[in-house]
Prior knowledge:
By secondary structure, chain A is mainly α. In chain A, 62% of the residues lie in helices and 1% in strands. A two-stranded antiparallel ribbon of chain A has the order 1-2.
Amino acid sequence: MAPPSSHRPRKKRAGASSPAIGTTIIDSSTKRESPAFPLAAFFWPAKGHPVSQWVILPCILMIAFLFRWATSLWGYSGLQNPPMHGDFEAQRHWMELTTNLPVTHWYFHDLQWWGLDYPPLTAYHSWILGFIGAAINPEWFALYRSRGLDALDLKIFMRATVVVSEYLIYVPAAVQIVRRLAKHQSINPWDFSIAVAAILLQPATILIDHGHFQYNTVMNGFVLASMASMVAGRPLWSCVYFVAALGFKQMALFFAPAVAAYLAGICFFPKVKPLRLVGIAIITVLSFVVLFLPLVLGTAFDTHRNIKLPSSAVLPPLLSTLPVEVSPNAFYYPYLVQLVQAIHRIFPFARGLFEDKVANVWCAIHSSGLHKLNNYPSDLLSKAALALTLTSIMPPCLLIFFKPRKELIPLAFATTAWGFFMCSYQVHEKNVLLPLLPMTVLLATDTGMKPSTRAWVGFANVLACWTLFPLLVRDELRVPYFVLTFLWAYLMGLPPTSLDIYLTPANQGGPALFTKIVHLPIYLAMIAWHVVEAFVLPPTNKPDLWVVANVCLGAAGFGMCYLWCLWRLVEESGILGNARKTTDAVKKTQ
Amino acid sequence: MAEHFPTLSQTAIVATALKVLLWPAYKSTDFEVHRNWLALTHSLPMKEWYFEKTSEWTLDYPPFFAYFEWLLSQAAKYADVAMLQVNNLNYDSWQTVYFQRTTVIVTELVLLYALYLFIQTSTLASKKQAHAAALAIFLSPGLLIIDHIHFQYNGAMYGLLILSVILARKQSGLLASGLVFATLLCLKHIYSYLAPAYVVFLLRTYCMGPKSIFHIKFFNCIKLGLGIAGILGLAFGPFAYYDQILQVLSRLFPFARGLCHAYWAPNMWALYSFADRVLIYAAPYLKLPVDSRAIDSVTRGLVGDTSFAVLPEITPRMTFLLTLASQIPSLIKLFFQPTWDNFVATLTLCGYASFLWGWHVHEKAILLVIIPFGLIALKDRRYLGAFRPLAVAGHVSLFPLLFTANEFPIKVVYTVFWLITVLFAFDRLAHAPDQPRVFLLDRFSILYIAVAIPLIAYCSLVHQLVFGAKYEFLPLMFISTYSAVGVVLSWIGFSVVFVKS
């Protein structure tokens, strides 16, 4: 834990009354200051006579915890839904297999029943949790016998592991990124607290991790830690954290181009620093080595004990396509098999272009009937996806490479991740959490709470929750969905609870006309969709019609979010020669 | 006029979000109790209400509450008709749960309205304090635990109580205040513990002139008398017509219960029982006679149980006299200084007295003390000094109500959150007193609060790890003894402050 903010030298600019970040509004006639949105109102008593962060922060964390734990009382993915159950069973099963089987079997064991398909850090994490859980009740993770178990005490244990993992990784990282940004941009501690609360109460994260059941916050926490290290000027740590994120879930690749571009950028601009480049390269390689080391050591141990692969094991096809001929008797062969199998499991090239119904370009084009994509050969589609993804991530990556400035990091991350989410191959609807993460971090930047930015961050979050709705309904999470989404929208002063943002004139930081034209109809459409979905049955020949409508509207909205992030990135980077912005930025970097 | 943030409605919206998320949480038998009352008021004629005993949870609240359940049942049939069948015991379809939980949230609007009036009627100088107190009461962990998890309608009931207290602020509202309180008594008779304060206050301010107690306002007496008679008539009239009053009363006042409830409420009798337990081991050295039948009785308070091994038995009459005796000093003071502040303080002391000395007191009754006290805790720092240990002890004593693992983090984290924010905010807002302080409760309460942490850890975790299922009474006994110490000391502290001011 970093020392409390009171250790920082006070800055004149960061006067408690300065409304720079947009958390307060001043009535033009009475000159009286009031909170700009309800979340700020809840911190009002701490304004004026500051309260120690040692009091406020624990309170925020407790409130964030209460909403998480209350959500966790509801259903989860695959509850009483045989034969395969869902993500809950997958995670439980990985704890079962990592604690019961030799390491060499982890990536080979009965792949039909939720075979492990995440990188090694997930496996190690499952092993630790399974170890603890088995100490409490061995039946929860008994090999084979525990499949599909849904006892209440098991549910509580699993829910607790999500919360504990999140509070050990995501929460400190979120506090750190906000603190680093606040320090970098001279944001006062009061606004800092509001930003932390806003980020921690983000509904989509709570719904997926504590409702649906996953450990996304572990990966997202490492991503945030990586961003925080960049802002703090510690690029080597950011490599370590980012490798950890990748090592937990391969989806962190959404951010990889931005990370690479920024880290490369700081080695070349403003002046070339070859040593830093070498350092980054070495640390990254070392981190990967450390990541795979337990797997390799486990393989060595199993080879030593002469443990064979399971009889059902099929060697990964990747192995035969290697350019060099490998003899099965070579000493390194078992290690190669394990590494190649892990990679084969992590990147399922054989799966489809998109999974289920997801609000991205491909699914929208396909399912809206605009153009059916299943007639094309899959390798052509994957090439098209690759090309489109590269096109979409190229601009933000180039920008952050040539202008590696700290305040651009959240925007560059968000744009790249939106590009991936919209255009890439094999995307889940849950992956929308990735672009949302840096997008929500924008709230902690110096214009983050102003109506123009808050409108977009809020819009992306509400829209994302809404596209998750079909998934959440299957998990019996309808009520938490409405409660958490409404709550966050209310706290941030967003539609459908308030139109204040959109009624703010543009000269007072209100959103541009374009924003209103995009947002308001989509908000209306979301409400209308909920009404229709609740009361009208889809036509019998098109049972998925509502979901398709959801996907298409979602894709359109997310596309707008991508464009907005890109536009803001261009604007903030100053390459257009926008005078006000650049002078502002120069002032800040001094 | 400056508005204070967060406003009451903002707070209510966020709190409601949490309460809705708690719908699937643990619910006690009180949930079934209220479902049964919904069913029996809906499907049976009125004359059978107080005789119906298909369920063991017979109707034991006064008639207005039965009417209230009947009203709710009119809406309940649109949610799920099956919950309205008397024979459908322990029925809890999700529609039933959603419906009943919703009624708790909706009826809590009464409390919200009462608190809104409380802020509105406060003087400009004390508005900030009133605002903070209102938020603290609305967010009370007691209400969250008892109403929204355990399941009861205290929010609405305490809303009426506060409404009645607020109405008494102005001379013009005294009649309405009395009538609202009478209505409350006909909803839930536990509030009769507070009746002495009402009797004295209304008698002195409404029925007598402000200058002399011999100046009796007959017209006011008649209005109040007729009003109360009318309300009682509305409530009990139908049952008097069916000649069932004795049956109704026997349901309302079941005297067959023991001195202490199954969990000991943190009152004098908890300390008394604790002393008795200790004396069992000390008796051989002190050469005291021990009643061997009592030693094995772990779950005390059951009907016909011998309660005490060493100390003398306690009878209902003794508890009644002790309660009354401890109320009298404050009532006398109220009689001679009938200000609104003194009225609320006396209400609080009546709550204390009945909670500490009463027969078969339930730990939930601590709200009878905490909520009226909350209204005046910010009067000055001496009041706050007495409020602090009560806030900690009162809420910790509610923890055994929720014993399931799933709800454990919620009750603990929510209560700790409430204690931190409320005590921190109150500490800033309370003024220095006019008179010097006499009591060193501040030092004591820091120590007292610090002890709570290891205690809760022991009772909820360590005990199970060490002893397993053995000595189950031990954590409960520790919690109630600990809480009792806090409640008793805060009572003494508050009594001293009240008498001296």
